[in-house]
TrEMBL record:
Family: Belongs to the ABC transporter superfamily.
Lineage: Bacteria, Pseudomonadati, Pseudomonadota, Alphaproteobacteria, Hyphomicrobiales
Matching Gene3D superfamilies: P-loop containing nucleotide triphosphate hydrolases
Domain of life: Bacteria
GO terms under cellular component: plasma membrane
Keyword terms of this UniProt record: ATP-binding, Nucleotide-binding, Transport
Coiled-coil regions, chain positions: none
Annotated Pfam families: ABC_tran
Domain ABC transporter, residue spans: 8-251
SMART domains membership: AAA
GO molecular function: ATP binding; ATP hydrolysis activity
Protein name, entry field: Amino acid/amide ABC transporter ATP-binding protein 1 (HAAT family)
Length: 260
């Protein structure tokens, strides 16, 4: 729980499916207040790496550490309690409830969990205030009394992010956050994630294919290829590196995506 540890770290993290090594000894540390994009060609192991961090998959070997604590053997729910929040997967919206009710439910559930020492004793008033704060953070406060069913798709995405924030994660994971979104919805989600970056206690990880999204959000890019970490650095440097351009991504620097 101290600042001497990176918020999240993977050490020699490996998973094999039969003879295939999908994530191959990936060691990487993620600091508070940083946003890291994970890129690589199709099948490189990006989603599998995410699944190993969030607990959807169990590593063959290696470790995932949160604030120095080994998460091996912990379920997805236990990892969420500890502070790993994965967007658009953990949260289920209740369509007939209002926006505010949805967020309050998550805040309440979070407060009941034993690991959140500061909010175990949270009063009803504190929980309500927390929900209002989160709704303001994602700019949904004016729609707080609308039912979820009445929201646009973009606003539902905002609500999903609000519910993720209400879980108070230290690590926020987004798997292709703009995939399947309409042209007008993309800036909404990008704005939201950019807003989340202002909280320097949080660390954001995103798997992303789109170069413009990466450029606008990431402070750092790590590249996976055949499950191994092959490049790590500032976006401009990584995108321009010959190893990424030619050997691994097979793309010219100015093309739309950095993979596949
Ligand atoms: N449950 C599984 N069983 C067997 N093989 C798997 C399983 N999950 C992933 N793989 C394999 O592991 C490799 C990495 O897959 P993964 O989905 O992590 O790649 P990715 O980088 O996320 O690709 P994409 O960009 O296409 O989503 C692939 O070869 C995939 O077929």
């Amino acid at each position: 729980m101290t600042s001497e540890h990176p918020v999240l770290e993977t050490r020699d993290l490996t998973i094999r499916f039969g003879g295939h090594v999908a994530v191959d000894a990936v060691s990487c540390a993620f600091q508070r207040g940083t946003t890291t994009a994970i890129v690589g060609p199709n099948g490189a192991g990006k989603t599998t790496y995410f699944n190993l961090i969030s607990g959807q998959l169990t590593a063959t070997s290696g470790k995932v550490l949160l604030n120095g604590e080994d998460l091996s053997g912990l379920s997805v729910a236990a990892r969420t309690d500890r502070g790993i929040g994965r967007a658009f997967q953990l949260t289920n919206l209740f369509p007939s409830l209002t926006v505010r009710e949805n967020v309050r439910l998550v805040a309440q559930a979070r407060a009941r969990r034993g690991y959140d020492l500061f909010s175990v004793a949270s009063s009803h008033v504190e929980l309500i205030e927390r929900a209002e704060h989160v709704l303001a953070e994602v700019r949904l406060i004016e729609k707080a009394d609308q039912t979820v069913a009445a929201l646009s798709h973009g606003d539902q995405r905002k609500l999903e992010v609000a519910m993720l924030i209400a879980l108070q994660p230290q690590v926020l994971m987004f798997d292709e956050p703009t995939a399947g979104m309409s042209v007008d919805e993309v800036p909404v989600v990008l704005d939201l994630i950019a807003g989340l970056k202002r909280d320097t206690d949080r660390s954001i990880l995103l798997v992303e294919h789109k170069m413009d999204v990466i450029r606008s959000l990431a402070d750092r890019i790590i590249v996976l290829h055949n499950g191994a970490l092959v490049a790590d650095g500032e976006p401009a440097e990584v995108i321009a590196s010959p190893i990424v351009q030619q050997a691994y991504l097979g793309r010219e620097p100015e093309e739309e995506t950095v993979d596949a």
